[in-house]
Design goal:
Length: 203
């Protein structure tokens, strides 16, 4: 793949993730968010795996800065660089990316649905565990942990819907764009195939 094509692909994927991150500024139901979709999208389409972590995390952090210091500034004293317990959310984000590496080596509807469901479940488990472990709302025992998970169940439906809707939109639009714009496609032609093409050319 030519350098210009690689740059175009990376830039386009990055813009998709940034747009998804800042869509959180639009009023939405609790937990109806693009977090899982962003992680899976980066894992599926970035050839350079470090970008699959860096770009989505930076995008989410930038959107967090705006949300915490503009939208909800009245809830905080001073500028907020990171909210309490952010590491649980970002930790879930990283784990979802790892799942994406495994499940989305090839993108198709079946794999995408499974990955989206896995992302929702992982986020539910990790984020609610973080609420229990870091907060003072629940006692630090099994009963307290179970109570925390039970309290989170009403929000889980929105997490599932959010991941499915954002995954469908992001992956669907990007796949259409790759079909319409060949330069966006990742070059997966093997070296042997290139050699065969050269042999045919010189016959």
């Amino acid at each position: 793949m030519a350098t210009k094509n690689i740059t175009l692909r990376i830039s386009t994927i990055t813009l998709f993730i940034l747009f998804a991150a800042f869509s959180r500024l639009i009023p939405h139901p609790p937990n109806f968010a693009p977090i899982g979709a962003m992680a899976l999208f980066g894992a599926a389409y970035f050839s350079q795996r470090y970008l699959a972590f860096i770009i989505p995390i930076i995008s989410m952090w930038l959107s967090d800065l705006v949300i915490n210091n503009v939208v909800f500034a009245h809830y905080f004293n001073g500028f907020v660089w990171a909210y309490d317990g952010f590491y649980w959310t970002y930790g879930a984000f990283i784990i979802i990316s790892l799942v994406g590496f495994v499940l989305l080596k090839k993108v198709n509807p079946q794999r995408l649905i499974v990955s989206s469901l896995a992302a929702s479940v992982l986020f539910f488990i990790i984020s609610n565990f973080g609420v229990w472990a870091s907060g003072m709302m629940y006692p630090k025992n099994i009963s307290g942990l179970m109570a925390c998970y039970i309290a989170g169940i009403p929000f889980f439906k929105n997490t599932l819907l959010g991941d499915l809707v954002y995954c469908t939109a992001m992956f669907g639009i990007f796949e259409i764009m790759q079909y319409k714009i060949p330069k966006l496609r990742e070059n997966k032609v093997a070296v042997g195939e290139n050699d065969d093409a050269l042999k045919i050319k010189h016959k």
